[in-house]
Amino acid sequence: MSSEFDALLGDVGVERFLREYWQRKPLLIRQAIPGYSSPIEPDELAGLSLEEEVESRIVIKNGGHPWELRRGPFADDDYKALPEQDWTLLVQAVDQFVPDVAELLKRFHFLPSWRIDDVMISYATPGGGVGPHFDNYDVFLLQAEGKRRWRIGQHCNSTSALQDNPDLRILRDFECQDEWVLEPGDMLYIPPGFAHDGIAETDCMTYSIGFRAPSHQEILVHFTDYLASELSEDARYSDAGLKQPQDPAAIDEESVDRLQRSILELVQNREALATWFGRHMTETRYPELAQSYIDDEADLLEGLNAGIALLHNPSIKLAYRVAADGSVQLFASGEHCTVPGALLPLVQQICNQSYLTPQALEQWHENAEAIELLEQLLAKGYLLLEGDDE
Hints:
By secondary structure, the protein is of the alpha+beta class. It has helices at 3-6, 13-21, 42-48, 76-80, 99-103, 216-230, 253-267, 270-281, 297-305, 344-352, 358-362, 368-379, and strands spanning 27-29, 56-62, 66-71, 87-91, 116-124, 139-145, 148-155, 178-182, 187-190, 194-200, 204-211, 310-312, 318-322, 328-332, 335-339, 355-356, 383-385. The strands form 4 sheets. It has an 8-stranded antiparallel sheet, covered by helices on one side. Strands 8-7-10 form a 3-stranded antiparallel sheet, with no helix packed on it. A hairpin with a 2-residue loop joins strand 14 (328-332) and strand 15. The two termini are 34 Å apart.
């Protein structure tokens, strides 16, 4: 199963990578994608940064103050005012706007696709970078154009000292332990917590494939919010069988135990946890990019009968889960629906294929539940009829 992905990891291969490197230590892969050519040009990347809905930043090493951060959207004049070197443009979630960039993510499907966050692309002039820092998530750094020198440092955590810069989390101390120059096609994997510092040696573009890693704080807050939204007003603290207290002002241990049992009963609901997790991990950065392209089931059937393919909207995150009762939960853009287990092959196609051919869909034409599912996904803009994505 892993053989088709082994080439991306060089001599290491998928099994060894997962066993020895994933979330453990950095790995340099020379020519992970030989001859790689970026599907987007620097001018096109800058064009995206002019758009209101696109998250972008410019970091200037020596601007109005050391490591100056400017946030987009930008204007053409902003670029004219930049120095000749020592600056970096970073554009978030380019895969959600450029399908050819989204195709790159298929190469990383030796890992759960629902763990992938987005592809951030940076363009840097000579000397440009964002300073020595660490991330709390896994990241693959693919060199797309030019040369960038990467220095790898110590393992860090929330107690690591940072410079006095309110905008950027730049480390106060950096202990270089490895150093490499990456050229187009080279890739560097960095686990969570490892300090790293990338400095452009020439005009260059780097693709950062980041992974979702919600903090335990985030998990607890959002899961309990989800549980609370599902509870009835009738569910309340109760103490039937209460004994007369020795001191009416004292909170006794029996009361605390009673409350703890109630809370544990709620959070130990495994089905609720799984449903929330699927919804949370498929939340989309730009949900406004999903819009309906059909009016009713007749439009869908007409399209399918005409041999029109369906496409996965690249701005939408998809995942699925087979529940204990055999039904299938399909998660999309922070929502979910439950369908019969017989639709599992269709759900797998929807989640794993960016292009659903007419031949692959033909077997579902007479299945009312399958048509209903496809209609719902098209109505929400999670799937697109071929031709409507242009």
